């Protein structure tokens, strides 16, 4: 599985072309085997999370980005179900409100970062500012940035600076103890169509569908270009992007869980070791308990 995942690592400094990635890929696994492996990895993740919490020096931030109906919500639900909810926090970012527009574009995301010892999951993230906003540059006008009162001013230089801000933001987080995993669930346009139809045909899923989803679907090519450019500009060794095939939901969940497990391993987490005097106190308390009538 490890070798399979490496092919979805967006190598820093290498221009990304999504045409080189297969949205239907599922390896040599069958669905049931994949589900069994996922359950095994969940146990490892639970143990790793406990160590993360106990050590309390590091945190983990998992970023999910994708087109509509790619499976972000279900991936979060299935992969994170083995973790202790007391040590996790999930933020689903919507369009910015007036207060958020009155600050820089990273402000609301900084506020949502996980504390030390915790796992944070961002369903959509600061990358919306170089994805949706790049396809719809008129949204940036709401930020009231000096010199950018017209979409015509949002040229290549503007986006280059925004990528740089993101890289610096993530570098700062990493240097201060936050491990970052960035997941792009890469679903095909054909699979998205089928999932939209499923939502329309199933009354229990009607609420998931929005007419606005169809309007964004018409801009598929522009979005793919925006993803390629953003991933190319911001995938680093310290904050890598993984392009996960998402047509098979069960495989995407397994791949994500494996990436998270490997990330925990690299952190080399350990349970704290008490000082000598604290250990002596424990021995005294143990003796007291054993001598109780």
UniProtKB/TrEMBL annotation:
Keywords: Kinase, Transferase. GO terms for biological process: polyphosphate metabolic process. Residues 29-267 form the Polyphosphate kinase-2-related domain. It holds the Pfam family PPK2. It comes from the Bacteria. The keyword Kinase applies. One of its GO terms (molecular function) is polyphosphate kinase activity. Belongs to the polyphosphate kinase 2 (PPK2) family. Class I subfamily. This is Polyphosphate--nucleotide phosphotransferase. It comes from Pedobacter ginsengisoli.
